[in-house]
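Record 1 of the preview.
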Amino acid sequence: MFFGDVVVDPSWTFELTEALRDRWYEKEEVDLTFPATLDQLRSWLDDSRDFERRHRFYWQAAMNDFDDGVNRLGPEYRQGLTVQVDTFRSAMEGLPAAGAEEQVAQASQLLLSLAREACSDGQLICAWRDVVSAVRDGQDYEVIRMRTGLLRALLKRSQRGSAEVMRSITGVLLDRQIDVRVAQLSLGDVADLSTLSRQDAEASAGLSEEARLDLSVRLLTVPPRRAHHVVWHAFAKARIAGMVQTFGSITLYDRDWFHGNATEDGPHRDQLPHEVTEAESFFPTDWLPEGPHVVLVRVDLGVVAAADAPAVSRLQARSMVLAATFPEDFRGWEMYVGYIHAVDGICTSNEAFRLAEEDFATPHLQMDATAERLNRMAPRVAPHLPGANSDLSDVIDAVGWWKASSAQPSLPAVVLDVRILELLASRVSGQEWYVYLDNFHKNAWIQHQIAHALMRVAWHARDDLRHFTPDVGQAAEALRREMVQYEGMGFHTDIHKVISRLPDLVLVYPTHSKQRRRAESLARRVAGGEGMHAWYEEFNDRWSRALNRLRSVRNSLAHGGPVTPGAAASVAPLAHFLAGTGLMDSLSALLEGESQATAHAKRRDNADTWAARWLSGIPASETFDAWPAA
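->
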């Protein structure tokens, strides 16, 4: 099956391929993957600071994440770890505590053993079987999503590229001759592809379902491929002493000199690396950033197995520049987002170069949206600027911090956003920032998550339907027009229509499709009081875990405690969202001549009223009677 092929009645293996490629909620996930919970616990067990009673809360937060991670595991994967999980839990009883160094050391060793087994090939196969059974048995979309997320995490931990492996397995499951033969080649089942004609490559392989599943399992455990990885990055506001400088595995190039020799057959073309000069390498020279003070950075990682070579090379390039320019250069070179990745001399992937504060994807839409907001807000702000009071000045300053944090990595972003939350808490309630969040934002966040899930399934109702018959797309489009209406440059989603139309949306899609699975999942959650209550409690639990983790990350950043990249990345978007929401309330209140406390109390009271109605058993649609169009 190839792009554009139509499937009238997809099989469950087709839905499995969609599940493997589905990244629907990945960027919005606030829970840690199971391996990330092990990292977080390991960081606390390795904490060299003397025990203090206040540390107990943060240890418990890490254990709560661990327990939740265990509870979300599929049955086969969990069964394979039962003994080690139970042994580790027993070893953790009573920790942290003063004078418990021996117990901590024992728990640390048990955690290492658990982590090794959790990421072993045997457990990787168990995780795969859990995904397969979830799709084959028609389980809830959330279950499928969590299990595929774990599978991706395990592939990355084993230094296998999750995207590459998923792509290979998808082709095998769809019975594509070319993908089956390439898989057999990588497994040593065939010697070469010389006998494969173009016509054969575009045909079906004719493998049975069982044979395709067996081949997929074998692909999972192919040893990580060792290859020569080279990654190109770029810095703005930069200059080097000459046209080319080499420092070990890192080579710096003046961008204009490089571009002239690479594209115009310049006199120094022979000084460029082979992945640039060879025609078969397909080096995308035109993707390089432009500007008078741009330096290109080539990082040669050597022959290694690398699941995410661009991330590794980015860290090396950034670390070298930061260390070399500290402390004289206060501003420092600015590193572009983006890269060009070459494997064994051939460019295999790239990401557009842009500076962190830029957005090249939709510049006109961004500018139009800003113009619209400026037109709406500027008349309200301008009269207050002469002689602005300290509260308004503080909030406007904090808006600048909030915008700056959006362009920062997770760790500094958390620091900035929590500082905003501290400011808001002091002005609104005088409470600690995390108490303020629990009291004023919890139900509003839960309401937003539920509404966002409903609106998103409406917005994406017509996505990825190319493999289905035209009547599926037409019916989905008709329902979407009812749920989403355009008004000028914007649109709004009628959440009442979304809830009422979910059963119809379910029937539009084929039985074995990710679209139907998503719609079914939401339809069950809003069908009655029991489902609504369970959905609320899911988000309530996520809120508690995420808020406690945010407290832990922020406290560690302030006091030199342990922080893992996964923990910081999981809470940074939440902190940014909550800080932005609070700033909007405060800014609107000050412009309307109200107290900040009054505006925040309105949001809290409205959300609390919504939550009470949601949990009361009334129809889901009625709980959104006061919900604004979005």
